[in-house]
Design a protein that fits this description.
With about 500 residues, the protein is mainly α. It is built from 17 helices and no strands. The termini are close together.
Length: about 500
């Protein structure tokens, strides 16, 4: 779609032979395409949690050990997180449409292999394949939204939808994973991606038009090697923290190497003729603040999805399906928060107060979770905490994702979108490792102070671990509140988007 919604000048002879699409038809087409892109994004996001529910069944079926189990999740995170910026730049260089469609097909194929896996090695390799194609698909999807919806009103609505899906995808994955595992098989948590991909592929072919690409642009190969290896080391280091001590070289050694490589990558971006991630993208104040807030939110969110799942299943005895259903109030409040923030609050008050309010509400929701006990009622205790946390996440996710890509030049849309996904992925990896380690330490300390043979001590020890994770998650959201207050600019005046709109 041309800038400002104006039709390009067309010679009169062309107008007489071929009638141009009406504005209503063009507008309807791009909203239908948003549905297609959002469906693909949902597939990628829920894949981060849908397999978690199925892990015990897969472990029993394929016979792998507890120590090997984490690699079913980590293989996906490593490939996805380390290749995101490369995937984003590829989308800019070869075109968003082709990147989106190739990513869809590849993700579906890898999902089919993983679902049919007859051994642990094949399952892990296929999960890594999902991560590779997810790193191509996710940035292409977000950049299509960014470059298509450029006017303020439609952009707010589009990112309300997209942000709601990004925030709620984890909870939807828990519900869907529980249903599929309980009533079909763990393999269907992977096969279900074929249905998502098939619908999105047909819609993508019909609705998303080809986009122009810059034939003079070149791939920054040194930058790719530096950032991919750096992100790999960071994700791998945090993954190792779950199974090794933080003092282990397998943890801090990879983390130190990752940070060093990322610092070197930043320096190289100031020298490269065709930088992979132009620093102008990050140096805009509101964009930089949005990336930081998305990172912090991803860290804190894992305290909700991971440890609340454990609490509901292990402390309260919920089934996998009932656990997924229990998250639905949070999903509903998240969607409401996203809609209200982008369409009503941000245009009136600006990013600073809205995102800050979201961080505060999420912190309050996590703080409420620290009061949960072994007999807590769902309606009286759990629902209020979920509603608060969900509303807070909605107030953060949708505006931050929109602001993180606002005003980005068309040739940088893909890599800017990849940076958004990278913040979320890295934040998730940090949250998983850090909160798991802190929770395990709290459980060990409680058991050391109490006689484990006494009735109820084990249950109380588990609660101590969950409460510790909830407190730390609340602390991350409180830190996000300070970040949003310090970094976002005042007022409602946003940088005018200079992206070139693209027909989807």
């Amino acid at each position: 779609m041309p800038p400002h919604g104006k039709e390009p000048a067309v010679p009169s002879r062309t107008r007489s032979s071929t009638a141009p699409p009406t504005p209503d038809r063009t507008d309807r087409r791009r909203w239908l395409a948003l549905g297609v892109v959002s469906l693909a994004q949902l597939m990628v996001v829920l894949d981060g949690t849908i397999v978690n529910i199925a892990l015990p069944s897969a472990q029993q079926d394929l016979g792998f050990s507890d120590g090997q189990r984490q690699w079913v999740v980590t293989a996906y995170a490593l490939a996805f997180g380390s290749l995101l910026l490369l995937g984003g730049r590829v989308a800019d260089l070869v075109g968003r449409r082709i990147s989106f469609l190739v990513g869809l097909v590849g993700f579906a194929a890898a999902s089919a292999v993983a679902g049919a896996a007859g051994s642990f090695a094949i399952l892990v390799a296929a999960r890594a394949g999902q991560g590779v194609f997810g790193a191509l698909l996710a940035p292409a999807a977000l950049s299509l939204v960014t470059s298509t919806f450029t006017d303020t009103k439609s952009r707010a609505k589009a990112f309300t939808i997209y942000g709601s899906i990004s925030g709620a995808g984890g909870a939807i994955g828990l519900l869907l994973g529980g249903v599929l595992t309980e009533y079909l098989s763990w393999r269907w948590t992977l096969y279900v991606n074929l249905a998502f991909a098939a619908v999105a592929l047909v819609g993508g072919v019909l609705l998303i038009e080809r986009t122009a690409r810059d034939r003079n642009a070149r791939l920054d190969v040194p930058g790719v090697l530096l950032v991919s290896s750096g992100l790999f080391c960071v994700v791998y280091g945090f993954a190792n923290a779950e199974s090794h001590a933080w003092s282990s070289p397998a943890t801090w050694g990879f983390l130190a190497a990752g940070v060093s490589l990322l610092v070197l990558f930043t320096w190289w971006q100031t020298k490269a003729a065709h930088p992979l991630l132009p620093l102008r993208i990050l140096l805009d104040r509101n964009r930089g603040a949005s990336y930081a807030c998305l990172l912090v939110t991803a860290v804190g969110t894992f305290g909700i999805f991971l440890f609340l799942t454990y609490y509901l299943e292990q402390s309260l005895g919920y089934s996998a399906v009932l656990t997924g259903l229990a998250f639905m109030p949070m999903v509903a409040s998240l969607m409401v928060g996203a809609a209200v923030s982008n369409n009503a609050l941000v245009p009136r008050f600006g990013l600073k107060p809205v995102v800050s309010l979201g961080m505060g509400l999420a912190a309050a929701g996590l703080a409420l979770m620290t009061t949960f006990g072994v007999t807590s009622g769902y309606v009286t205790h759990i629902v209020p905490a979920l509603v608060l946390a969900g509303a807070g996440m909605g107030l953060v996710m949708a505006p931050a994702q929109s602001a993180a890509t606002l005003g980005v030049a068309a040739e940088d849309a893909g890599v800017a979108s990849a940076a958004v996904n990278a913040m979320i992925q890295i934040g998730g990896s940090i949250g998983t490792a850090l909160l798991t380690s802190l929770s395990a330490s709290a459980i060990a300390d409680y058991l050391a102070e109490h006689d484990a043979r006494e009735a109820g001590v084990q249950a109380q020890a588990s609660l101590a671990g969950y409460h510790t994770a909830f407190w730390w998650s609340a602390g991350f959201f409180a830190f996000g509140l300070m970040v949003s207050l310090l970094l976002y600019t005042r007022g409602t005046k946003h940088q005018r988007s200079d992206t070139v709109a693209v027909h989807m």
